[in-house]
UniProtKB/TrEMBL annotation:
It comes from the Bacteria. Its EC number is 1.4.3.3. GO terms for biological process: D-amino acid metabolic process. It catalyses: a D-alpha-amino acid + O2 + H2O = a 2-oxocarboxylate + H2O2 + NH4(+). The lineage of its organism: Bacteria, Pseudomonadati, Pseudomonadota, Alphaproteobacteria, Hyphomicrobiales. Belongs to the DAMOX/DASOX family. This is D-amino-acid oxidase. Residues 22-334 form the FAD dependent oxidoreductase domain. It is an enzyme of class 1 (oxidoreductase). SUPFAM superfamilies: Nucleotide-binding domain. Its cofactor is FAD.
């Protein structure tokens, strides 16, 4: 295991890059691809290296794709709401139609109305809706829901389409990607960005396991993300094209990336059926597990190893699609303009005696 020390001698490092710099990015998840696009838009020459043979398989691939800064405030820091709102605009500018602007509907079983009241107190940007308004928003929901919270300004997208679109945009700007490759290019580029998530050697970073299902239910129509508040397993259902629905997601303090457990599968299906009874006839198209990198405060960090000219971007926890664009822009502003982001500054980190990486086929 690598020996890594946090440097206290240089808390806000700077780097001087030449015009039209060569940037090498390790990792093609949400962190790597957002950052690649931000640098490519500013005329940097981009090469991405990705260990996997395709974009599939990352935690980013199994994400819900929710752009929900208000709902996330219930269990997250204030910065998630304050800065996360702007990420919706960023995604809108990537490609027209990528983002679905239909809001989020939060419901709770009648016996758990106290959870709805608590959620309301801890979040902003919502409207209390009654039974008739719930039926108007989502007619297929179980008729037992008497009240809900509607977050009209929130949005969602298919994360897989988002990742593919990001890569396409980077290529249009002259960037390239090498799959089945995780080779460092230190000494061959002006700056290397380490966006490898759980594969990167970082102190204090832990894994948070998330499990999901993909259902196909031709009889079900949902327009927006629906969140079910539940004391044991909070659930969200995110609609995708052609009556497909992503159901997720657990948050288990573990870096184990094995298959979904029987318990999680049963709880997902029971909860989904409770929200929309027609899910009882749904086909289970896919199950998936992703391990999300997180630091103790559950906020992402950017660290610069001056000796190796490597910038690490890591620790998105469950906020990759909400904060990925923000840190991507912050990284480009720091590297190209020497401008620090007040909320997500670049700090120093020294990678000591990290073994050389080799290309793995």
């Amino acid at each position: 295991m690598s020996n890594i020390n946090t440097s206290s001698g240089l808390s806000h490092p700077a780097i001087n890059l030449s015009p039209l710099p060569d940037i090498h990015i390790r990792g093609a998840g949400i962190a790597g691809l957002c950052t690649a696009l931000s640098f490519a838009r500013r005329d940097a020459k981009i090469l991405i290296s990705e260990l996997r043979p395709s974009l599939a398989g990352h935690a980013s691939w199994y994400a819900g794709g929710m752009l929900a800064p208000y709902c996330e405030r219930e269990s997250a820091e204030e910065v998630i709401e304050r800065r996360g709102v702007s990420s919706i605009d960023w995604w809108d500018k990537v490609e027209e139609g990528l983002v679905s602007h239909h809001g989020t509907l939060v419901v709770a079983p009648p016996r758990d109305q106290a959870d709805l009241t608590r959620f309301s107190r801890m979040t902003n940007g919502h409207k209390l809706v009654d039974e008739s308004e719930i039926r108007e928003l989502e007619p297929d929901l179980n008729s037992t829901f008497r009240q809900g919270l509607f977050y009209a300004s929130e949005a969602h997208m298919d994360p897989r389409i988002a990742l593919e679109t990001l890569l396409s945009k980077v290529k249009e700007l002259g960037g390239d990607i090498r799959f089945s490759c995780d080779q460092s290019m230190l000494g061959q580029c002006d700056l290397e960005l380490d966006c490898r998530g759980m594969s990167a050697p970082l102190p204090e970073r832990r894994g948070v396991r998330g499990e999901m299902l993909l259902l196909h239910a031709p009889e079900v129509s949902l327009t927006r993300t629906v969140r079910l508040l539940h004391p044991r397993i909070p659930l969200y259902i995110v609609p995708r094209d052609n009556h497909h629905f992503m159901v997720g997601a657990t948050m288990i303090e573990s870096k184990h990336d094995g298959a979904i457990t029987a318990r999680s599968m049963m709880e997902f299906l029971n909860a989904a059926y409770a929200v929309v009874p027609a899910f009882g006839e749904a086909e289970i198209i896919e199950t998936g597990v992703g391990v999300r990198p997180a630091f103790p405060d559950n906020l992402p960090k950017m660290h610069f190893d001056e000796k190796n000219r490597t910038l690490s971007i890591n620790g998105y926890y469950r906020h990759g699609y909400a904060l990925g664009p923000l840190l991507a822009e912050a990284a480009a502003n720091w590297a190209l303009d020497n401008v620090q982001d007040a909320d997500f500054p670049v700090t120093s980190l020294s990678y000591l005696s990290e073994p050389a990486e080799k290309v793995r086929q």
